[in-house]
Amino acid sequence: MTLRSTIRSLLYQTEKLAQRIRFAGSEGWPILLGISFPKSGTHLLDQILLGFSKVAPFAKRLHSFYAEYEGETGRKRVPEQALAWLDSLRPLDVASAHLFARPEAAARATSGGFVPYFIFRDPRDVVVSHVFYVTDMEARHVHHDYYQSLPDFDARLKVSILGRPDAGIEFPDIAARFAPYLGWLDHPEVLTIHFEDLIHERTATLTRIMDHLLARAPIPAPRERILDALETAINPSKSPTFRSGKTGEWKKYFKEEHKRVFKEVAGDLLVKLGYESNNDW
User: Fold this and answer.
1) Which among 38, 49, 56, 250 could disulfide-bond with 124, CB atoms 3.0 to 4.6 Å apart, if both were Cys?
2) Share of residues in the chain with pLDDT > 70 (%)
C-alpha cells in the first residue's frame, strides 16, 4: 500500500468514526451499493447515495469504485476480483461499481448486508456519450488513440455501437456490453433506476431511492429532510454524464446508418429496458 493510499484509508476510517459518533445507534446498518452501466449516470448515483450521510451514519465519501475492465489497458478482471471487492466492504460504506450480474456477485449484493441500486440509460445515448468520453475526455483510455485516428464523429459512433471485434482487446457491440448487466433487472432486492427519470421525474425518483433504503434501515429523520439531503447532494458539474444535461441526445447524432447497425446488433434491448415498445423507431 502506497503512502497516499494509506493516508486516504486513515482519513476514510476517521470520517466513518466521526459519523458513528455524530449519529447515535449506528449498529445494523447496511452497505449502500450503486451499480451502473458505464456512461449511465455513475457519478450522479454516487452523489445521491452519499447524500444519505447528512441524515444517517453512512460514509461521506466513496469507499471505492470497481470496474469489470481496466480503463487504461482494457483488461477484463476475473470474477474472483469482483467477489473479493464486495467482501472488502463494511456496514455504512458507500461503494460504486460497473458490476456484472454474475450469480455469485448477485448473491452477495442481494444479501441482507447490502442495499443495492442499478442505474442505466438509453443505450443510444450511451454510445453517443461514449464517443465524447473516449475521444475528448479521457486521453488514457485504451481506445483513445484509435478514436482519434478515425475521420469523424460518425465513424466513431459506429464503432461505439459495433465495438472492435478484431482489436485484440475485448470491446463488443452495445448489446453484448449490456448483456452481463441485464440480470440485475431480475432481482427485486435491487432498485432499478432509469437515468432519464432523474432528469425528468427527479423528486419521484429520489423518493423511490429513499424508500428503498428506509425499507431496510429506517432513518430517524423527517422524509422531507431526507429528500432534501439527496437533492442538495447532486452536483452536475462533477458528473460527466451531465455533459449536456439532456436526454434523447442520440436523435441529434444518429443517421440512418447508425439506426440500421444499432437495430442489427441490439435486437430487443431497448424494449427490455423500457425505452421502446418495438423496433420501429
Assistant:
1) 250
2) 96
